[in-house]
Each structure stands twice: as structure tokens, then as C-alpha cells.
Write a structure and sequence with these properties.
Helix content: 40-55%
Number of strands: 16
Strand order of the largest sheet: 3-4-2-1-7-8-9-10
CATH topology of the largest domain: Rossmann fold
Mean pLDDT: 90
CATH class of the largest domain: Alpha Beta
Shape: globular
Structural class: alpha/beta
CATH superfamily of the largest domain: Glycogen Phosphorylase B
Strand content: 15-25%
Length: about 400
């Protein structure tokens, strides 16, 4: 009998579900996986209206909820939802309550797990401490550089401490890369297991390429926010021109506060907005190089999607994407911003290298399915809770 066949009854508390981000995508895929497998699963989430069913408990946030991201809110009145959620949990009888962040519903999940004496698990999806530091430094742009850096570091330490304290409430933890697993193990003393990200390799495929021009297209997909370090891209453009590459353009897919700045400083760029489904897959397949300058991502779903689409990726040496890209095989991991630009120039100038890396990138991710990701989660449940 497999772990999924003997699966515990899981209530997933998803702080983000309908939004456009990696954590929300993971929650939607988990919900779909549980339905496909017929697993006992209840998804507790925010939506536009109240909805109660066998598999979902969806409530609307209060009018006091405030933005913490362009499409994500925190509801300080989340406690008003505790009683209706508890009634649904008592009906469902979960054996595990699993939260995805220390957000409003994550806190609610911790409270209800304690009330109902139910096992509590958490998975790490966002480097909140690094996001907070980046945004604090941008907000304090008027400060001298040294003060701004020290303030950002203090903000990062404070937020990391609070997040690790919250994760220490869990019985079992999950994280997407080895660095975060080590950090959580050290800071909480709890068992920590891998929880990566899957990919739809039929949707994201090199065969979806439609463009026929000979320009080198450097692409980015994600939220256009300060923590993504997108202000590096104009310097990449300068390096390309200095390296003799003139027939190139950027393709930026996503939305966020950095778009206006990028439009002013990256004139040879196409801004597609947020794309979904086949339109997104075609955008990836039309890229020759995927540039991902973010040093704060916990995993990098978009990097996997680019690799599956045949685009070699250049990423930074900080954060989760460096564990996805195989240096010199499916792309490059840059140790500095200067090297980041140099590697993109190298790929732009060497068509054969781009092609070979693109083919290797596709082969690398072909087996990384969402089913495999969640099977590993249920295996961890079995090891920790049933001794299997």
C-alpha cells in the first residue's frame, strides 16, 4: 500500500489560492491532485463569497483587509472566520492541518490545530524576510546607502526570527530547497522534508514557438516587484550593446510596481502583462534566454517552465533557482551582477550554445511532475505520523 493509498485526512489552509503567484499555483495543483486521486482533502481558502462543499471551505475577507502585495491581502479580522471554519473542520475530521504561510489563514490554521488537538504542518513558499528587507530599502531610498543597508539587514533578521518562530509551531515542516531545509531544521528543531514544484511539460514545450525572426529575445516572467531585482536588466542591455549584440529585445511578462520604471529604462522591451495557459507557454517558447535576476525566490516555478520550453536560464547564486539550473548544462548560475550580464551576453553571441543548453534544459525537467511532488509530501506524512 502506498502512502497516498493510506493518506491522512488533510485540511490545507491556503493564504493564497486564486492569485497569480507560485504559492497559489502550488495550492491549486495540490487541490487538483487530491481530487484526481480521490484523497480526503479539504481546502480552506479566501474567495469572493462563502462556499462550503465536501472539498472546499471558501470565505470572503473582511473590508478591513489590506494589501501586502499587488494581488494579495492580509485580513486583521481573520478571527471572525474561526468559528465557521471550525464547524467545517469538525465535519471533515482532519488528521493533519497544513498551512502555507504565517498569513491570516496560516495563523487561523495554527489556532484551530491547537483547539482541535490536530497535527499541524507547514510548508515554506516565500522568503518573506528577504522581501521585507528589499522593500524597506527601496522605501528608504532617501537614506545614505550604508544606513539603508543596515536598516534592511535589521528588518530581514527581525522578520526571519518571527517567521521561524511561527514555523516552530509545526510538527513537521516542508521547504523547496536544501538551504531553506537546513535553516528551518537549525532554527526550529523540527523534521523538515522536501516540497518542490512540478511542471506541466505538455503545456510548456519548445514546439509552441511561433516567432520566426532572428532577434535574440531575453525573457522574464514573474511579479514586477522590487525583490525581483529587475533594475539589473537595463545594465544587461548595456552589456549586450557593449558586447556587439544589437539585434535583441526583452520580453517582460507579469505585473507590478516596477513596470513603470522598466518602461522608462528598458525601451527595447515588450510588456505583455500577465499571461495564462497557452499564451504563457507561447511566450516562454519564444524566448532564446530566460533572465531571472531575483535573489529572493524560494524555488522558481518560472525557471522550470522556461527550461521546459527550451530556454536556457541565467539565475543568481542566491535563492532557490540556483538549485534548479545545472551550471554549464541548462544555463548559468551567476555569482555577481557583472557575471549575470556576462553570461547573457555569452548566450546571445553563441547560437549553438543556446541551442545545446535549451535541449538539455528540456530533458532535465521532463520528469518533474506535480504528482511526484505531492506523492513525496504524503510519503513524509506516512513516515512521521504512521511510522511507515
Amino acid at each position: 500500500m502506498t502512502a497516498c493509498e493510506a493518506a491522512p485526512r488533510v485540511a490545507l489552509f491556503a493564504d493564497t489560492f486564486h492569485e497569480v503567484n507560485g504559492a497559489a499555483r502550488t495550492c491549486r495543483e495540490w487541490d487538483a491532485f487530491a481530487r484526481r486521486r480521490g484523497l480526503p482533502f479539504l481546502c480552506v481558502r479566501w474567495g469572493r463569497a462563502r462556499e462550503f462543499s465536501e472539498a472546499a471551505c471558501e470565505l470572503a475577507r473582511s473590508r478591513f483587509a489590506f494589501l501586502i502585495d499587488p494581488d494579495l491581502r492580509f485580513d486583521p479580522c481573520f478571527f471572525r472566520a474561526l468559528e465557521p471554519i471550525q464547524r467545517e473542520l469538525e465535519r471533515f475530521e482532519p488528521e493533519v492541518i497544513h498551512a502555507t504561510s504565517p498569513g491570516d489563514l496560516g495563523i487561523a490554521g495554527a489556532i484551530l490545530a491547537a483547539r482541535l488537538k490536530t497535527r499541524f504542518t507547514l510548508s515554506w513558499h516565500t522568503n518573506l524576510h528577504e522581501f521585507a528587507a528589499r522593500r524597506a530599502q527601496q522605501f528608504l531610498g532617501w537614506m545614505p546607502r550604508g544606513w539603508r543597508g543596515r536598516t534592511g539587514a535589521a528588518v530581514e533578521r527581525f522578520v526571519l526570527g518571527r517567521v521561524c518562530w511561527f514555523f516552530g509551531r509545526g510538527d513537521v515542516l516542508f521547504a523547496p530547497n536544501p538551504e531553506l531545509r537546513s535553516l528551518l531544521q537549525e532554527r526550529t528543531g523540527r523534521p523538515v522534508f522536501p516540497m518542490g514544484r512540478g511542471i506541466d511539460t505538455e503545456l510548456f514545450h519548445p514546439a509552441r514557438r511561433k516567432r520566426r525572426d532572428d532577434a535574440v529575445v531575453i525573457g522574464f516572467v514573474g511579479r514586477l516587484m522590487p525583490e525581483k531585482n529587475l533594475r539589473l536588466l537595463p545594465r544587461v542591455a548595456e552589456a549586450l550593446r557593449a558586447g556587439g549584440v544589437t539585434n535583441f529585445r526583452f520580453q517582460i511578462t507579469g505585473a507590478g510596481s516596477e513596470r513603470e520604471w522598466l518602461e522608462r529604462h528598458l525601451p527595447n522591451a515588450e510588456f505583455t502583462g500577465v499571461l495564462f495557459g497557452e499564451a504563457l507557454a507561447e511566450a516562454y517558447a519564444g524566448m532564446d534566454i530566460f533572465a531571472f535576476p531575483s535573489p529572493t525566490d524560494t524555488f522558481g516555478n518560472v525557471v522550470q517552465e522556461a527550461l521546459a520550453s527550451g530556454a536556457p536560464a541565467v539565475v543568481t547564486a542566491s535563492g532557490g533557482p540556483r538549485f534548479i539550473v545545472r551550471p554549464g548544462v541548462s544555463g548559468f548560475v551567476a555569482a555577481s551582477e557583472e557575471e549575470f550580464s556576462e553570461r547573457i551576453v555569452q548566450l546571445a553571441r553563441e547560437e549553438r550554445l543556446r541551442r545545446e543548453m535549451g535541449e538539455a534544459a528540456r530533458r532535465q525537467v521532463e520528469g518533474q511532475t506535480w504528482d511526484r511532488v505531492f506523492e513525496e509530501v504524503y510519503d513524509a506524512y506516512a513516515r512521521c505520523f504512521t511510522g511507515a
